[in-house]
């Protein structure tokens, strides 16, 4: 499981090594299409670094307090709703951007999981098509979401934060969009370099609620699009075939495009998934301590390995299939798996 067998989408996306034959053929076709342009991708790596923005994300103060975490009318892993007290902390107002991550890569030479050469010791069972550096990319397809779950994901060689959708795509002019194709390991490395850390799941949900008590959305009760108002970058249209971009964006939006929540935090719903420090355990809420919970010591093995929590949903969350842009919604992924909808933001202790 992991980087060589992506499982980037919630709700049952299959591990790549279990893909049906037609999907593998499709993946091989993608390999063929991109091999010819890999050299071009390599040349544009410097272009990604030229987007470097030495201004770190602005941080905002999130007060301490007690709130109801989870909900009792949601999926099983959001139950039971339980009271949690969180100490005050500071949080990046936005998701870490391409420019900010480029500054990190430029300063440290850090190589993300998606960019690393294949490690046969770590992935002894990887199929040949997954032995090139790369990552998972969403591709629109006209399928029944229940019949062919995860058919909209492809492993694309050359996909990385510098080329989020593969070698033909780059980040030129996108320094203010969230960095994506970030595995948990990458987010953790950036946080340490920046003198910060990833938020706990409890901190993240408390922050996302923005001072509201048990509201369904980070902004309150209104539905996306009501009265022509859009509160977050999510997916409209027929998933996964066509994103109409009714909210203004089919794909990532620059940070600060949509209104902030009550704590001045942008994109706590939608745009890009955000990694948390906790291991994912669907039953953790039943045993969670009340004060500053930090998650279980490790998570149960899911398809072979423990996974880390990610929160907030992405531009691919739609109301029919994946309504994971709610403040209570939980998701997880292996520590070495990114995708073109997964990024992060950091926190710091103190007021
Ligand atoms: Ca959108």
TrEMBL record:
Q: Which domain of life is it from?
A: Bacteria
Keyword flag Membrane = yes
Task: Note down the stretches annotated as region Disordered.
Answer: 290-313, 328-351
For this UniProt entry, which segments traverse the membrane? 21-41
Note the coiled coil stretches, chain numbering.
none
Q: SUPFAM superfamilies given for it?
A: C-type lectin-like
Residue ranges occupied by any Sulfatase-modifying factor enzyme-like domain in the UniProt entry: 56-348
Q: Which GO terms describe its molecular function?
A: formylglycine-generating oxidase activity
Key words, A-Z: Membrane, Transmembrane, Transmembrane helix
Task: Give the protein name, as stated in the record.
Answer: Sulfatase modifying factor 1 (C-alpha-formyglycine-generating enzyme 1)
Q: Which organism is it from?
A: Frigoriglobus tundricola
């Amino acid at each position: 499981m992991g980087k060589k067998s992506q499982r980037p989408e919630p709700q049952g996306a299959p591990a790549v090594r279990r893909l049906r034959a037609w999907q593998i053929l499709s993946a091989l076709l993608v390999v063929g299409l991109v091999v010819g342009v890999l050299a071009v991708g390599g040349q544009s790596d410097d272009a990604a670094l030229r987007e470097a923005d030495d201004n770190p994300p602005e941080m905002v103060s999130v007060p301490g307090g007690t709130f109801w975490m989870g909900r009792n009318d949601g999926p099983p892993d959001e139950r039971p709703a339980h009271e949690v007290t969180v100490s005050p902390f500071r949080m990046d107002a936005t998701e870490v951007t391409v420019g900010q991550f480029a500054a990190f890569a430029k300063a440290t030479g850090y190589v993300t999981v998606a960019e690393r050469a294949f490690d046969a010791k770590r992935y002894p069972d990887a199929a040949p098509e997954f032995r090139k550096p790369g990552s998972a990319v969403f591709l629109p397809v006209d399928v029944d979401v229940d019949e062919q779950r995860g058919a909209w994901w492809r492993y694309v060689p050359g996909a990385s934060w510098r080329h989020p959708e593969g070698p033909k795509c780059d980040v030129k002019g996108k320094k203010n969009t969230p960095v994506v194709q970030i595995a948990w390991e990458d987010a953790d490395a950036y946080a340490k370099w920046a003198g910060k850390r990833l938020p706990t799941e409890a901190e993240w949900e408390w922050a996302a609620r923005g001072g509201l008590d048990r509201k369904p959305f980070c902004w309150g009760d209104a539905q996306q699009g009501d009265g022509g108002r859009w509160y977050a970058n999510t997916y409209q249209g027929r998933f996964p075939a066509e994103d109409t971009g009714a909210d203004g964006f089919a794909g990532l939006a620059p940070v600060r495009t949509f209104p902030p929540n009550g704590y001045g935090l942008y994109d706590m719903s939608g745009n890009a998934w955000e990694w948390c420090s906790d291991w994912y355990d669907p039953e953790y809420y039943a045993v969670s301590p009340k004060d500053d919970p930090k998650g279980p010591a490790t998570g149960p093995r899911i398809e072979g390995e423990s996974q880390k929590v990610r929160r907030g949903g992405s531009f691919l969350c739609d109301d029919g299939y994946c309504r994971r842009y709610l403040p209570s919604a939980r998701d997880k992924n292996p520590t070495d798996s990114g995708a073109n909808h997964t990024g992060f933001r950091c926190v710091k202790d103190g007021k």
